[in-house]
Amino acid sequence: MAEKTEKTGKAVFESIFGDKAAQTEAMLYALSPELARLGIDFPFGEFYAHSDLLDLKSRELITLSTLITQGTWPQLKIHLYAALNVGCTFVEIEQAILQLIVYVGMPKVINAMTVLKEVRDEMNEG
Amino acid sequence: MAEKTEKTGKAVFESIFGDKAAQTEAMLYALSPELARLGIDFPFGEFYAHSDLLDLKSRELITLSTLITQGTWPQLKIHLYAALNVGCTFVEIEQAILQLIVYVGMPKVINAMTVLKEVRDEMNEG
Amino acid sequence: MAEKTEKTGKAVFESIFGDKAAQTEAMLYALSPELARLGIDFPFGEFYAHSDLLDLKSRELITLSTLITQGTWPQLKIHLYAALNVGCTFVEIEQAILQLIVYVGMPKVINAMTVLKEVRDEMNEG
Amino acid sequence: MAEKTEKTGKAVFESIFGDKAAQTEAMLYALSPELARLGIDFPFGEFYAHSDLLDLKSRELITLSTLITQGTWPQLKIHLYAALNVGCTFVEIEQAILQLIVYVGMPKVINAMTVLKEVRDEMNEG
Amino acid sequence: MAEKTEKTGKAVFESIFGDKAAQTEAMLYALSPELARLGIDFPFGEFYAHSDLLDLKSRELITLSTLITQGTWPQLKIHLYAALNVGCTFVEIEQAILQLIVYVGMPKVINAMTVLKEVRDEMNEG
Amino acid sequence: MAEKTEKTGKAVFESIFGDKAAQTEAMLYALSPELARLGIDFPFGEFYAHSDLLDLKSRELITLSTLITQGTWPQLKIHLYAALNVGCTFVEIEQAILQLIVYVGMPKVINAMTVLKEVRDEMNEG
């Protein structure tokens, strides 16, 4: 069974979120220190850390899919940045979103594309 | 822009579903001929056909994620077979399901694992 | 403002559910007498009773749409019978379900068509 | 079986959305040209085009119901305009929303009424 | 069986919502007078009024749980104030939200904590 | 910050699930050993263990609420037994379910009452 230490969770989180890691952690901590601990240690130490079993690009596509299905748009935006950071291309991400027309219909896909456009625009500005 | 013909949709569907394709199409047709046409042509001709833009393994993982999030268990079962057929391993699929504990919580993940076990058992029997 | 009495709720319920009314009410009462009271009086006295403001066929199509979207299949089955009873045709119902491919995707629509087929089969048997 | 051409989808879309059609299409195209093609051709060519099988007023009520159930508010706003454009009255729309108290509870109905009020206010202003 | 009169519903509503009651009722009335009647009389007269059968603190925790699960954030904010007003502490509310990581995953819990922070900040300001 | 050890999670789990604990853990383990570890250690060690901050009866009501809202019926059944085991009465549980008519509508509440009846019948048999 894979070992997990708090340090591994944070390190994995930082490698996936890149330059968005610090502000994401700060945002969580400002809401609740407990939430920050649980929100970094558990997901990234228990799951994303096992990139040898399932690679990070696949993991981020899986996460994008569930976030779009749930309509949790703030988290979608954060993970669009993460997906790009681990090597997904804009084309792959757009294909992933469009495919969800089959599974969740047009409304959520349109809303997801709106968030993707925000990310594109932000990246073009700076 | 990618071209799409009805023949492409059905061919892609058959390559992804393998030996489950015929019974799946028959099941759809028995419900509604319109549903069978729309259910094969649109998803597989418009989306899965573009495996050059996003590969089939990634596409199936995206589909598993949304089906588990939605709790649509009959379709999850069908796509577990499809995911295996396009090259996802049981380890990768199990990792994908476990990762969703972070995003949808334990209940849906337990129910998804129950469907995966059905697939494993069926494959062991024959 | 529209008036509502308990008697109106039950009478409207019975006119919409036809020969399925008695067994539906009995089913609710067996679960919880409170549930039966709330489940007949409120929906049918407060809403369906106002068929002069929005007709019963429209009301049943609205109900079918939300039940399919939610995936609450036992209630979908009951309301498929109700929709037929108030004058919706099988063609209209099938069109309503198929249209939801655009809004909820294929999985829930396939599951809805499965319930519709059960209703068709039951009606053909007796 | 009904025939479908891209022109039919766009023509149906324009007749339903009236003076909101151009801006809606432009909004989709700005997000993704693929999305605009899929978002107009498929829904309106494959489904809304068959208004002989299920009329447009019924179709819009079905759409309002699923959008409220899903909580996809931007699309609800667009379709409130569409529902009015195809002949639904404010009274019918309000009755449709209120009826959903029975099926989705108060929160989503309150949020839907908030969107309806936005539409009313916009229409009163100009 | 418990008796219910319109006056009981409004009185219970006012006792639970405290100084937020008037503005909440006004908000509902501005959307739709029918909605205001149904939104106060039914929930508070039929359910919250029976605080002898299930106490108000428990009732508000149950309501917080479903609102977070549904992602209906405007109503969550209102009920966070109500929960505090009927005697839930910030610690209890935070524990309730964190527990939902197990059942709905991190995204909705983060969004819920964001709403809780808004309430804290508003209460600190005045 | 509260400490957590694997032993605490399992002990809390066993105290809450009583005579259903062994079979529940066995069921999870049969699906996936990883799932059993994550499904007992994390929820019960990180959350339910803090019954000094939020009591177990409240915690189970919160859990019932989210499970009914999500429609995850197998887990609802398990937690109905757990709720009774930690001291919730049938009256309190029934009131909790009925209150959700306000927040999720009738369909899910009827389905929840159906599961409650199963539990009642099983308890009456032995």
Describe the structure.
The structure is a homohexamer of 126-residue chains. In chain A, helix 1 packs across helix 3 (33-48). The mean pLDDT of chain A is 95. The relative contact order of chain A is 0.12. Chain A has 126 residues and is mainly alpha-helical. Chain A has eight helices and no strands. Chain A is 80% helix and 0% strand. Chain A has helices spanning 6-17, 21-31, 33-48, 56-70, 73-85, 90-99, 101-104, 106-125. Chain A is globular.
Low-confidence stretches of chain A: none
User: Distance N terminus to C terminus of chain A?
Assistant: 43 Å
The H-and-E topology of chain A, N to C, reads as HHHHHHHH
The averaged pLDDT of chain A comes out at 95
Number of helices of chain A: 8
Computed over alpha carbons, the radius of gyration of chain A is: 15 Å
What is the percent of helical residues of chain A? over 70%
Most strands sheet of chain A: none
- Structure class of chain A: mainly alpha
What share of the residues of chain A does DSSP label as strand, in percent? Answer: under 5%
In brief, what are we looking at here?
Chain A has 126 residues and is an all-alpha fold. The first copy, chain A, has helices spanning 6-17, 21-31, 33-48, 56-70, 73-85, 90-99, 101-104, 106-125.
List the defining traits of the structure above.
homohexamer; 126 residues; mainly alpha; 8 helices; globular
What is the element layout, followed by pairings?
The structure is a homohexamer of 126-residue chains.
Chain A: H1 6-17, H2 21-31, H3 33-48, H4 56-70, H5 73-85, H6 90-99, H7 101-104, H8 106-125
Helix pairs in contact in A: 1-3, 2-3, 4-5, 5-8
